[in-house]
Amino acid sequence: MxxxxxxxxxxxxxxxxxxxxxxxxxxxxxxxxxDLGAGKTTMTRGIAIGMGLxxxxxxxxxxxxxxxxxxxxxxxxxxYRITGALDLESTGFFDYLDxxxxxxxxxxxxIADELPxxxxxxxxxxxxxxxxxxxxxxxxxxxx
Length: 144
Ligand code: ADP
Ligand code: MG
Hints:
7-stranded mixed β-sheet; binds magnesium ion; Rossmann fold; binds adenosine-5'-diphosphate; alpha/beta
């Protein structure tokens, strides 16, 4: 399925993230696409809340991956600086794949060839100062 949502504030994007987060299961992969400032980290904050985790999500730009523990663990990657499979390997990404955490990936464009089948794509486009067009491509579970 593929569905488009329009949000008009950061809070609305967090809300959408919450709904998505509440439906996630171990091993799910959220592959974000969208420019700097699109709202990938903001939506990940909502996903964390929806998963029942704390809302203290921050950008993993420097750490490459931030982990948030819980009944369901969230592993939040930033692939901005990743340019190839070798680079990706060094982040430990492939070990995370079968670790049972939910994986959220910012700049998934950079690892498009390495994304496992079944990843849920969330494409965010800035359409105005506070408006975003958010396209979710995944299975029926994500009919929010
Ligand atoms: P990214 O991780 O994609 O670089 P962030 O989530 O860090 O983006 O930042 C998004 C910025 O855009 C924040 O400053 C946020 O307040 C602002 N913003 C404005 N409107 C929205 C919206 N509708 N959804 C998400 N963020 C928004
Ligand atoms: Mg970000």
